[in-house]
């Protein structure tokens, strides 16, 4: 019987398929453990079927249930348990530890999955955190905002993808967002802690450091959409930054990794500057996984380093894969945002986009007939285009030009957008 790896749940970003392909290429059998298999998107089912990956139902909120399911599926041939999905990295790490399989320290992952945990760890490193307060009611949020001075950023402690993250310019906005976070029991099945993070607003540019085993490997530049939301609309790798600034960004990320105790496997660490002059970097988040939004694909195209394959190799105890030849010096991804509300009526221009300069990937997330009401988060994106170029700016120009060729027709629907 072939050795088996169990992946816990599957994001919609392509990371799960990339992981399954790497494992299949090495001769491993891959099983995706999913709480509700019937809820998986059709494109995920199609992709996994083509790879030869099985989908098995399991209570993925429980490490004990994951251990039982994985052992029942593979027995002595179980080679690894992990997850590439943000909401399930903790429970997967707990299951791997219980089985004495390779993986990150569960306590470090647990710390990363809570913005409160990251901030508490960062407090021990001078100059790492932005000014912040953790509060449990609206009065506390208003008090924190007044002390910091407007604008501030209000966010929940345990979600991802900029969900319920808002810049608030006055007390009315702080009240509205705090009430919304505290009044929401769960999001996409994930229980929400009744805690609000109030942080100073950092006006400088934001970057992410793609890291492995506690060390930064490269820097990604981020482009977000209109405030007060923080919807990410583009990424470029490698980021174009001055050498001294690059060292500051990587140093800040690595200090953050040491603070939370994450020294095994992949990490996606977000760093933002307090000023436009890029003098004062602050730690935003430490994500104990490969980056989302197809960032690992940008890294692979620009460097030949496959971060997802490196992660899977660490999970099964294989030697680190050798980097392939880079496709180009730089790569970028451009997302297409949806309208606030609408029913998708038509999709055109896909082949035109695929024929654009340097284009390597065009992906449409939604299907005709889908009804959408905006969340004000990264879920408000219908498509993406990845392209390469001789530098990061040209790669983004190529991706943007191709994305502009995509045309979506939307019919109006009744009802307001879901975001607040």
Strand order of the largest sheet: 15-14-11-12-13-16-20-18
Termini separation comes to 52 Å
Rg computed from alpha carbons, rounded to a whole number of angstroms: 21 Å
Specify the structural class.
alpha+beta
Residue windows where pLDDT falls under 50 for at least 5 positions: 416-420
Mean of the pLDDT scores?
94
How much of the polypeptide forms β-strand, as a percent range? 25-35%
Structure annotation, total helices: 13
The tally of beta strands, per DSSP, is 21
Taken from the alpha-carbon principal axes, the silhouette is globular
Helix-residue proportion: 25-40%
Biggest β-sheet strands, sense, barrel = 8 strands, antiparallel
Give an account of the 3D structure:
The chain is an alpha+beta fold and 420 residues long. The protein is built from 13 helices and 21 strands. It has helices at residues 15-25, 42-51, 63-74, 89-98, 106-112, 115-122, 138-148, 171-182, 243-260, 295-303, 307-316, 350-354, 392-403; strands at residues 4-8, 29-34, 54-57, 78-82, 132-135, 152-156, 166-168, 186-187, 190-191, 196-200, 206-212, 215-224, 232-237, 266-273, 281-287, 330-337, 341-348, 359-364, 371-373, 381-389, 407-411. The strands form five sheets. Strands 15-14-11-12-13-16-20-18 form an eight-stranded antiparallel β-sheet. Strands 3-2-1-4 form a four-stranded parallel β-sheet, with helices on both faces. Helix 3 (63-74) packs across helix 4 (89-98) and helix 4 (89-98) runs antiparallel to helix 5.
């Amino acid at each position: 019987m072939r050795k088996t790896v169990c992946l816990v749940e599957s994001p919609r970003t392509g990371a799960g398929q990339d992981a399954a392909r790497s494992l299949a290429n090495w001769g491993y059998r891959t099983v995706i453990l999913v709480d509700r298999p019937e809820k998986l998107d059709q494109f995920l089912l199609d992709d996994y079927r083509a790879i030869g990956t099985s989908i098995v139902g399991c209570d993925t909120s429980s490490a004990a249930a994951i251990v039982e399911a994985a052992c029942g599926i593979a027995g002595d041939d179980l080679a690894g348990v992990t997850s590439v999905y943000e909401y399930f990295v903790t429970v997967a790490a707990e299951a791997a530890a219980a089985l004495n399989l390779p993986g990150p320290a569960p306590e470090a992952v647990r710390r990363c999955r809570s913005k409160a945990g990251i901030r508490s760890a960062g407090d021990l490193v001078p100059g790492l955190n932005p000014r912040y307060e953790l509060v449990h009611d609206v009065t506390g949020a208003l008090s924190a905002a007044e002390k910091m001075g407007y604008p501030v950023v209000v966010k929940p402690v345990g979600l991802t993808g900029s969900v319920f993250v808002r810049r608030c310019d006055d007390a009315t906005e702080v009240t509205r967002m705090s009430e919304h976070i505290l009044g929401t029991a769960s999001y996409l099945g994930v229980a929400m802690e009744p805690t609000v993070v109030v942080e100073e607003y950092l006006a400088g540019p934001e970057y992410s450091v793609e890291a492995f085993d506690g060390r930064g490997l490269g820097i990604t530049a981020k482009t977000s959409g209109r405030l007060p939301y923080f919807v990410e609309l583009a990424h470029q790798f490698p980021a174009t930054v001055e050498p001294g600034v690059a060292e500051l960004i990587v140093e800040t990320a690595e200090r953050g990794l040491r603070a939370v105790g994450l020294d095994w496997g992949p990490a996606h660490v977000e760093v933002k500057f307090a000023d436009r002059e890029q003098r004062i970097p602050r730690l935003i988040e430490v994500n104990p996984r490969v980056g989302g939004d197809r960032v690992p694909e940008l890294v692979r195209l620009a460097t030949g380093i496959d971060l997802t394959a490196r992660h899977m190799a660490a999970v099964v105890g294989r030697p680190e894969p050798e980097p392939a030849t880079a496709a180009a010096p730089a790569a970028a991804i451009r997302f297409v945002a949806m309208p606030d509300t609408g029913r998708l009526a038509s999709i055109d221009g896909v082949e035109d986009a695929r024929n654009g300069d340097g284009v390597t990937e065009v992906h449409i997330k939604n299907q005709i007939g889908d009804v959408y009401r905006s969340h004000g988060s990264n879920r408000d994106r219908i498509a993406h285009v990845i392209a390469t170029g001789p530098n990061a700016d040209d790669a983004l120009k190529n991706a943007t030009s191709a994305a502009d060729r995509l045309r979506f027709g939307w019919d109006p629907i009744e009802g307001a957008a879901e975001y607040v």
